[in-house]
Amino acid sequence: MTKQTVLVIDDERDIRELLSITLGRMDLNVDTAASVSDAKKLLGEVRYDLCFTDMRLPDGTGQELIELIAREHPETPVAMITAYGNVEAAVEALKAGAFDFVSKPVDIHMLRRLVQTALRVSQQPAEQASEDAEVPASRLVGESQALREVRARIAKVARSQAPIYISGESGTGKELVARSIHELGPRAAGPFVPVNCGAIPSELMESEFFGHKKGSFTGAHADKEGLFQTASGGTLFLDEVAELPLHMQVKLLRVIQEKAVRPIGGRGEVPVDVRILSATHKDLARLVQTGHFRQDLYYRINVIELKVPPLREREGDIPLLARHVLKRLSEQAGVAVPVLQPAALAALGDYDFPGNVRELENVLERAIALCDNGVIEPVDLMLESPPGRDDEDEEDVDDMPDDESLPEAAEGNGNVGLDDYISNIERDAILKALKETRYNKTAAAKKLGITFRALRYKLKKLGID
Fold it and tell me: Whole-prediction pTM value?
């Protein structure tokens, strides 16, 4: 079997020799260059499986070489050698297409792990980076142009080790995107560890993320690995990263920069080999402006941003998604897949789905329970509100009608039909909730346990509004 070949570009002889010895012991052929011009000449003659380049070179920069390799040799991973703590250079290198970075002084163990991961990437065909088919068929169902672009982006960024920031509204499938990135990349055999940053109590965060030593605090009865150590060799997905308190943001930034954690009560740092993916439905850039999220951490985790489109922008995907979800839910319930009537499918297509794919799943799960004889009709979907996205989450109290303008609740007297009787009960409950919330419709809807749109629909239907 032919040995794999690595190119090391650095003007410091000691670094070239250190890397040559280390890589040689990994049974790799090593070529070295001390300048940009020497490196360009070698790149034109040899197909390399991996490159290392220093940032500063006598006749140019490593950034120039990274851009060249990304453009002319996309199948070759390239890692930047940076000075200790030079985070800005590392981020710029990753944005330019670098696979990863290693800081001076070079940690041999971290270097070996980086090389092993990078060589797995170089063995993958470069064409995979643009093929939609590489995204698992069970994830990201749909054929809209918006989703095709997301799948192509996933296949491309999966080959890198750059931190990815996944943005998008709630319910769009950000964790599915993160899992797809992990499964398509060289870390697929390693663990995928998702963590909801908003679900961990602030006082337990440091222990959860970095681990602790026995006896380091009350209740620490044994050593415990943190999430970073659990994900070592794989991917750590920080969901709702905007929920991290500022003190944890500082610690997280240091871990990402140093690629090492210090467990609570530990005397030294433990190296970790983890790729960071993060996500939130919030506007992270705005939180940086308001001082609720650290700018340095924002730039470190947002090396590459991947936006997940809302369902309303995925034209034509609802029929495919609906059938996929119905099949999955029916299999879980052990029942036959129900028939989705054309009118019901049209109703789904007309609805705006503010809760995106998650809301579609909830609607269909409810419809399976409500439908008769395995046939889903529009009424089973319970899409009571009219189509169209409503931006008014909250209504001003000043815009509410006065008490006198609201019709009195009708009393059930035994001479009305069932529909009228139920309408009277609904009217009484709605009027009571409106009065108790001082006619704030959003608060009244919450009190009644229905959506704002459902309340607005009922107000119109009952002639209250």
Answer: 0.72
